[in-house]
Amino acid sequence: MCGVTGIFAPGRDAARLAYFALYALQHRGQESAGIAAADGDTLRSHKKMGLLGAIFDEEVLGELSGHIAIGHTRYSTTGSSAVVNAQPLLEDTAIGTFAFAHNGNLTNTDELRDGLPPTAVLLASSDTEVLGKALAAASGTMMDRIASVIGQARGAYSIVLCTKDELYAFRDPWGVRPLCLGRFSDGGYVVASESCALLTVGAEYIREIKAGEVLRISADGIESRVVHVEGERSALCMFEYIYFARPDSSLSGRSIYMARYEMGRALAREHPVDADVVMAVPDSAVPGGIGYSAESDLPYVEGLIKNRYIGRTFISPDQKMRGRGVQLKFNPVVENLRGQRVVVVDDSIVRGTTTPRIVRLLRDAGATEVHLRITSPPIMHPCYLGVDMASYDELIAANYTVEEIRQKTGADSLGYLSLDALVASTGRKRAEMCLGCLTGVYPNVPVAHLTKQAPG
């Protein structure tokens, strides 16, 4: 889920542009952040744990001079949440030093690690470092090295990489994680995980970087190479549409906001209910809630106000406050709930620990009925491609029926969006998506990896 960006902007302060692009991608990771910048002669880097605004200031950005930069904001899956795993990572090769940043998760890390030369020294605990060592150990030009590693690496990876004078961007041959390309009006280019970052830095969206494509951006312009591997197929993660991506982003020309709005409309058709008002759990479910309201002709109200300053924090509440976790994050709008039969639209139920607390919070605020409507099908399988989606034991839908989940949440009714309606809302074909967490069918995960993780 991490956010990555790359800037090639002659005559401009690339690190500053990367900083603001990362701000637009902060929702994709809040554990650590970093920027590496190059000026044609020198490559410098700065990274720390925490949020972007606490890591960078004018003095730090001033030291990251140059017209090339890459940036990363981290959400950890493989590798602990520690500064040694913060990105960008730096590697030395026979053709010079490079910095790189990775969004995704490899499924054959052990195989790649076993193939490294004995001289390779691993200091971190992430799959990203193994990927970097594999790039360093490859031969030829940087483009040749990247193409070679794409032929070996399995899993999800959208990567930005810079040398002292060039910027590279590439995706795995399945295109599981997003990556797009934009252009500045006065020259130069930007790549980013989401299109919202392009608008933030004043760049024009050009296109999505293709699955398996490697872009080389230099003073000579853009060079593209597409690497094909056996068994490849388009497999963009469905959860980008359901939850990850910002609503003001687009994927392959499809507005995330409108996709979620259509999910809500379809949910109202599939699971109507006699109620008084519709609300959504902020923030990602809001477009779906508005869509449900429009299709059902029920008024949309704000039922919960999200505290924008409660997120991932290094200050843990004491035991009494910990039990009030939902109240720390949300406050009910009592006037919109008291005496009302409420439809609550949310994007997903994963472990099922938060949803019962939300239902109780709404009932305590005076709601007479609470009807849960979810803009995704039940999540029944873990993710192996870059999402911390829990194990089979933790996934509530892998262990209980819909009716049993309804009882556990305390809702008066519960309805999930069908898989067909979900896919239709994206404007894409089912065969073009990764639906592993919903169906258990993954695009490029080794059978041995699945067997090792399977229940029982």
Summarize it.
The chain is an alpha+beta fold. Helix content is 30%, strand content 26%. It has a seven-stranded antiparallel β-sheet with strand order 3-2-4-1-10-9-11.
Sheet with the most strands, sense and barrel status: 7 strands, antiparallel
User: What's the architecture of the largest domain in CATH terms?
Assistant: 4-Layer Sandwich
Number of domains: 2
CATH topology of the largest domain: Glutamine Phosphoribosylpyrophosphate, subunit 1, domain 1
- The amount of beta strand, in percent, is 25-35%
- What's the number of extended β-strand segments? 23
Main structural class: alpha+beta
What's the rounded overall pLDDT mean?
90
Radius of gyration from the alpha-carbon trace, in angstroms: 23 Å
Q: How many angstroms does the end-to-end distance come to?
A: 28 Å
- Under CATH, the homologous superfamily of the largest domain reads Aminohydrolase, N-terminal nucleophile (Ntn) domain
What can you tell me about this protein's structure?
The chain has 456 residues and is of the alpha+beta class. The chain has two domains: 3-232, Aminohydrolase, N-terminal nucleophile (Ntn) domain (Glutamine Phosphoribosylpyrophosphate, subunit 1, domain 1), CATH 3.60.20.10; 258-429, Rossmann fold, CATH 3.40.50.2020. Helices cover 30% and strands 26% of the residues. It contains 18 helices and 23 strands. The chain has a seven-stranded antiparallel sheet with strand order 3-2-4-1-10-9-11. Strand 5 and strand 6 (96-106) form a beta hairpin.
